[in-house]
Amino acid sequence: MALLELRKVGARYPGSRNLALSDISLRLGPEQLVVVLGPSGSGKTTLLNLIAGFALPASGQITLNGAPVSGPGADRGVVFQQDALLPWQTVLENAAFGLALRGVPRAEREEQARRQLALVGLEGFEHRNVWQLSGGQKQRVGIARALTADPSILLLDEPFGALDAFIREQAQELLLNVWQKSEKPIFLITHEIEEAVFLATDLIILGGAPGRIVERLTLPFGRRYAAGEPVRQVKSAPDFIAAREHVLQQVFQAHHA
């Protein structure tokens, strides 16, 4: 059963009659990690904003757990490319922030926040100031904050785009561990092809202007890592390289089209 479903969704650019997306249909089920990839201008961020409820579709319908998406909600946890943390709060306070807004008692919200910080590898960092953290650690706090609110799905908007290659690979491994242990379906957009192929159980390639789905792929590599295969072994395997090159070709074709 799909938790999230988009049916023939179209979207316009703000203040414009031009379409940003056209005829987008997809489903996100309980054990999926859906990644959306495409060239600049293909509507990736617009699509995430529609699912998050930050914008409304011009046509079609988006439902979550059977109910129409009509605005932002706690049932969708969002992690942005920029960490969006509150610099005057500690790591623990940032992780618990969403629950504080909902009026959850302090002891309860801090207990939940501590569990999620441990899940993302930040146990012992609870009382650090945000400015004391690295970029990768800040993104971990953002993921913990999104998970603390116990959303139905997790939405990530190019969360590792500002990280260097080594830290980025660690962050990819972390995300797969979080996906496996939290049992939360994930919807992620990225412009990085190897990242998309590695993480996705289901890869959606967008192209065109307006953005349309040009290909859908079911991929095994993230599940293989989650099952215990080392990351470098996964990424150096012939089938991974072949999939990466196929996706690269499709993205280039979408860009030139």
UniProtKB/TrEMBL annotation:
**Any Pfam family the entry gives:** ABC_tran
Which family, according to the similarity comment?
A: Belongs to the ABC transporter superfamily.
Q: Which organism is it from?
A: Pseudochelatococcus contaminans
Molecular function (GO) terms for this protein are: ATP binding; ATP hydrolysis activity
Entry keywords, A to Z:
ATP-binding, Cell inner membrane, Cell membrane, Membrane, Nucleotide-binding, Translocase, Transport
NCBIfam families listed in its UniProt record: PRK11248.1
Q: Does the keyword Cell inner membrane apply?
A: yes
Listed name of the protein: Taurine transport system ATP-binding protein
Q: Report the superkingdom from the record.
A: Bacteria
* Organism lineage string: Bacteria, Pseudomonadati, Pseudomonadota, Alphaproteobacteria, Hyphomicrobiales
> Locate the ABC transporter domain: which residues?
4-233
